[in-house]
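Comment thread on ticket #2218

A.B. wrote:
> Attaching the input chain for the structure job we discussed in standup.
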Amino acid sequence: MKITTPAAETIRRSVANSGLRPVLTPSAMTAATALLKDLHATAARHGVDPDDLDVTKGVVDALTRSYAQANVDVDVDALVQEATRAAAAALGQDAGDLTVEEPVRHSAVCAYVTLARQPESPEWGPTGHSPLVLRLDREDWGGGKAGPWTWSLFALGAMGVVSTIVAPPPSPKVAAEVGQIAAQALTGTL
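C.D. wrote:
> Ran it. Output below, let me know if you need it in another format.
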């Protein structure tokens, strides 16, 4: 589902121009759009032209920090498998046909799956023909402090080019949204 309001388009442009590679799930986009609309309405009530506000990146950053602060325990295996099922369903495939290998649990806080290229997949990775990796992990900030959960997409073998997915705390619903994003990346429609 693509949200097509003017506020959502403003957020998309800001993210695209930020030099980063984040992608927002539909639920994160809905939350960011609502927050931006509220800020614009507040500005208008104070006589400030909303177009003069430069807060869009701040909205996405604040939302990202808010999600990152959520401390939830999750089953990384189940969520990566749910994201894989959702991606496969979006592509009209079985999850087993979409994966290059079975999902891998790297640790209690990291799992990933390697997804097969599709005929319409854009070129990426060192050779231009790399499969796509979908990962859910949680940083260890040391001293027993866990960092935020992060969903990401990257080409297998690529160095440094990672798309972080801005999403609410991990859950089966969010995993399904992430799977939709992975399907869009695989088909070049993201």
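A.B. wrote:
> Thanks. Noting for the ticket: Residues 90 and 183 are 6 Å apart (CA to CA).
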